[in-house]
Amino acid sequence: MTDKRSHEFTRGLYGSITHTELSSTDPEATRDWCAEVLGWTFQPAFPSPGGDYHLFAYSESGGGGIRHTAQGEAPGSTPTVHVEDTQAAYDAALAAGAESVNPPETVMEGSGLRWSGRPVGC
Questions:
Q1: pLDDT, tens digit, for every residue of 62-120?
Q2: Rounded CA gap, 77 and 80, in Å?
Q3: What are the two backbone dihedrals, phi and then psi, of residue 93, each rounded to the nearest 5 degrees?
Q4: CATH 3.30.70.20 is right for the domain spanning 17-76
Q5: How far apart are CA 56 and CA 43, in angstroms?
Q6: Pick from 92, 94, 95: which is nearest to 118 by CA?
Q7: Is the pTM of this model over 0.70?
Q8: Sign of the alpha-carbon torsion through 21, 56, 54, 2
């Protein structure tokens, strides 16, 4: 058994929000509140460059993580939509007027790529 995390890609979820990342000034308090009030389940936290990352699940096909806000960052959330081809989705978003926040990047073995973007004017 290994501590290396991986993800098995699920084809039937294209177009669905499957991961939501919450940034919080107090991730442990946010985790505790979500568990108590919303009934979310959590895996043990794991270390990341910005501090502990708290993975949660709220359904069979959705979940996310809670992390500490970066310096100067306001608390918030970032949804991740499941797509078959991240580069193609990224290119289509740019062609449709989106402004890139970050280019696609690999975040976990088996997870494909991650991309963060926002529409122009948002």
A1: 788 999 999 999 999 888 777 878 888 889 989 999 888 778 776 555 554 455 544 44
A2: 10
A3: -65, -45
A4: no
A5: 6
A6: 94
A7: no
A8: negative
